[in-house]
Amino acid sequence: MATYSHQNVTLRGFHWEVSSLTFNLATGIVANDVGKGVSVDTSGPNKVKLAADGDTIIGRLASVEDRSVEGTKIGAVELQFANILPIKAGSVVAVGDTVVGAGAGEVKAAATPNHSANFVAEIIGTNAVVVKV
């Protein structure tokens, strides 16, 4: 992990409260998935799943709330953020890339960059600092 001082700039850890919405979560999502990329799950209304291979990332999972007593699981999804997403092992992601799902909420570089979707601002270890606004 990179070392930072007052002389460094990082975009890691920014979010916009007004762009965080509650969604229904797909079966199998657990608290350990917080911080992963999510995509639209068409199996139900207002539902997201962990980003699968090639999926468009619509947001970053911010929380998980198991309401199994009510028969549901919900979570907050940051639709705009500048924060880390895990890079799939063996994938090469570089500053300036656009990322898409790589499976299990991890990311990989998109075949063609689309900076209106998102862009990688920094690489920190096995994570990409992704900006999605």
Topology:
Elements: E1 14-15, E2 20-25, E3 37-40, E4 47-50, E5 59-61, E6 65-67, E7 72-78, E8 81-86, E9 99-103, E10 106-109, E11 119-124, E12 127-132
Parallel strand pairs: 2-4
Antiparallel strand pairs: 1-8, 2-7, 3-4, 3-5, 5-7, 6-7, 8-12, 9-10, 11-12
What features would you describe in this structure?
- With 133 residues, this protein is an all-beta fold.
- Helix content is 0%, strand content 42%.
- It has no helices and twelve strands.
- Strands 2-4-3-5-7 form a five-stranded mixed barrel. It has a four-stranded antiparallel β-sheet with strand order 1-8-12-11, with no helix packed on it. A two-stranded antiparallel sheet has the order 9-10.
- The mean pLDDT is 93.
Labels describing this entry:
five-stranded mixed barrel, 133 residues
The helix count comes to: 0
Care to count the β-strands? Answer: 12
Radius of gyration computed on alpha carbons = 15 Å
The succession of helices and strands, N to C, reads EEEEEEEEEEEE
Biggest sheet: strands, sense, closure?
5 strands, mixed, barrel
Strand order of the largest sheet: 2-4-3-5-7
Distance between the termini: 25 Å
What percent strand? 35-45%
Helix content: under 10%
Return the average pLDDT rounded to an integer: 93
Low-confidence stretches: none
What structural class is derived from the secondary structure elements? mainly beta
Tell me, what's the shape?
A: globular
